[in-house]
Design goal:
It is a single chain. The chain is built from 4 helices and 4 strands; from the N terminus they run ααββααββ. Helix 2 packs across helix 4. It has a 4-stranded antiparallel β-sheet with strand order 1-2-4-3. The two termini are 24 Å apart. It has one domain. By secondary structure, the protein is an alpha+beta fold.
């Protein structure tokens, strides 16, 4: 679980690094990189906000079932839940390696109407940053 990122980077640099790694994770694993990923680290909590996070399949399901939006929403919510579960081990690995702290819990949700995904991660301890951390 050791990575020199937290010893050599400031909080802001680490947040940018994590945002880029999460964008790459989505691109490599599900073929869709969110338009923008922002990361905030406060105490032992890491929060990600991914814009334009819906995949083509999810958008297709929503658009194809306009007459029965409830059914489409349930289908897309299930797809998203399955994607979140599939990405969880890689997400945990990225966080634990980069921050040198154990992941205690992960909460995530996607708003289908806006295509935004929020991920909140609780760590076992507050990460350490270089002395010029902000």
């Amino acid at each position: 679980m050791t990575d020199t990122t937290t010893q050599t980077q400031s909080r802001g640099q680490t947040q940018r690094t994590l945002s880029q790694k999460i964008q790459k994770l989505y691109k490599n694993h599900i073929g869709h990189a969110p338009g923008k990923v922002t990361c905030q680290i406060v105490s032992n909590t890491v929060t990600f906000l991914a814009e334009d996070s819906l995949t083509k399949l999810e958008r297709l399901l929503l658009e194809g079932e306009k007459g029965d939006i409830t059914s489409a929403k349930v289908d897309v919510e299930q797809v998203r839940e399955d994607l979140d579960k599939a990405l969880r081990p890689a997400l945990i690995d990225i966080l634990q390696t980069t921050l040198n702290a154990e992941v205690v819990d992960i909460l995530s949700d996607t708003t289908l109407a806006t295509g935004r995904t929020a991920i909140v991660v609780v760590l076992s301890e507050t990460p350490h940053f270089s002395s010029n951390a902000q």
